[in-house]
Amino acid sequence: MIIDDQTYDIIIIGTGAGGGTLAYKLASTGKKILILERGNFMPLEDQNRSDVDVFKREWYHPSEKWYDNAGEPFSPQTNYAVGGNTKIYGAALLRMREKDFEAVQHQDGISPEWPLKYQDFEPYYTEAEQLYKVHGKSGQDPSDPLRSIDYPYPAVNHEPPIQEIVDAIATLGLHPATLPLSLTRQTDDPTGDAEVFGISLVLGFPNVTLKTDAKVVCLHTNASGNQVKSVETEIKGQKYLFSSDVVVLACGAINSASLLLRSANEKHPNGLANSSDQVGRNLMQPLMTAIVQLSTTPNSGKFPRTVYLNDFYWGEGDFPYPMGHIQNTGGLLQELIFAESPPILSVLAKVVPDIALEQLAKRSIGWWVQTETLPNHHNRVRLKGEKLYIDYTPNNIEAHDRLVHRWIGTLKQVEKTLEHSLFNRSSIYPRSEIPVQVTANHCGTCCFGEDPTTSVLDLNCRTHDVENLYVVDGSFFPSSASVNPTLTIIANALRVGKHLRNW
Ligand SMILES: Cc1cc2nc3c(=O)[nH]c(=O)nc-3n(C[C@H](O)[C@H](O)[C@H](O)COP(=O)(O)OP(=O)(O)OC[C@H]3O[C@@H](n4cnc5c(N)ncnc54)[C@H](O)[C@@H]3O)c2cc1C
């Protein structure tokens, strides 16, 4: 074991949406910051732009195995790299709606109230949209929350085939809106992520050190158990111990919880900061179904997602419960998650020859249908020896099914109104639910709250049990909402960063 003889003010573990953004917020304080990231920089050619290769193979699955409810091993789709999962994400950055922060009755139970409200997050949403150069247009979606300032950049135009559908959807009295996207405005690498807008902005600071290929394996506390004393890390086969006044976990909702559970010791026998027995529990993965609309007219196969609908977000006439959110996918040749979908789409992707697959993808328009899942004590990250288990049973399924059928019905109506019959009217809409292996949009596991018996983190995302330990990633969510989580993770990192700047 090598003991690093330097001491740091802050150690940040992980460089995704939470960690990368927090590093940016803290770098200018002059505090001595060490960033530990288990992955490395991703060369541009390995990123989510590799056409059929990405679409067809499990490109972003690390070699490690996790285990499902039934004890079956699987390789998770999670990206260990500088920028974390934002290096492969779709960059759709949406604000949660005001009501998402309140207790809401769903068909399958209650989505709990957040201890802070939309108004508390609004200034940080604004800051997050500026930092991540979000391109959007307000005023199109009736569920839009109030904003103090408009989007910093204009919305991206729809591709012609999407524009035609958008116009047809609007004639049905629905409200298709332009999807807010993080974009660099550079042609070679247009997607904005936590490397571009977080880590790369801090590397020039003399007070900031980034160590890559640095996997944190355990947090050690002092004798009384109220402070993290050192961070045990493996770097190229060698173990190191690093120390700092403050330690921030930002490994993502599953890995942060797993690291706390792995760091159990005499003072914390159920896992570090786990006197509440809440660490790892209430794991949430919004229900997602991919729907493919087959077209007779080719498209480029490579274009950004640009449209979303929230007309059914809070329900509809005879179903007064939240149903969820709908987005078009990007061009199917670059939509990573399609390659990960179970039966229909993934089998298709794996058996169809490359050229045929490319042609098929270029004659398709994809849609994501997303529904909030509710926190459940039994849905959890759990350790048995060295093995990491994901116990997960989806809920709120009826609301999701309803939205899926509603959307397919809408697409059928739309096709009838298209003069030139862009689509083949085959009425076949291959669709597929997203399995637990795809860790997109995971959250929960270290919920924040005022009561240390029912939450892991306080309102500043500091653990109730350990004075100098924070968790700043998707773990802190008390409920998942139906919109994608990352803008809220970024906004929260800026909020906690403001607190830590004065620490
Ligand atoms: C294909 C795909 C598409 C998506 N599209 C969208 C979208 O359009 N909009 C949206 O809002 N969200 C999207 N998401 C979700 C989004 O990527 C996540 O919500 C977000 O990245 C989570 O941020 P995080 O900080 O919690 O964790 P992550 O971004 O996962 O970052 C965790 C970091 O910790 C590092 N790490 C983990 N363990 C250790 C360890 N032991 N030691 C050191 N480092 C460690 C990881 O390497 C990583 O860098 C998508 C996700 C995927 C996979």
TrEMBL record:
For whether the record's keyword set contains Nucleotide-binding, the answer is no
All copies of the Glucose-methanol-choline oxidoreductase N-terminal domain together span 216-284
Report the residue ranges that make up the Glucose-methanol-choline oxidoreductase C-terminal domain in this protein.
437-493
Q: What InterPro entries does this protein map onto? A: FAD/NAD-bd_sf, GMC_OxRdtase_N, GMC_OxRtase_C
In which domain of life is the source organism classified?
Answer: Bacteria
* Single GO MF annotation: oxidoreductase activity, acting on CH-OH group of donors
Q: Does the keyword Flavoprotein apply?
A: yes
Give the family per the record: Belongs to the GMC oxidoreductase family.
Official protein name in the record: Dehydrogenase
User: What is the species listed in this Swiss-Prot or TrEMBL entry?
Assistant: Crocosphaera subtropica (strain ATCC 51142 / BH68) (Cyanothece sp. (strain ATCC 51142))
- Mind giving the lineage of the organism this protein is from? Bacteria, Bacillati, Cyanobacteriota, Cyanophyceae, Oscillatoriophycideae
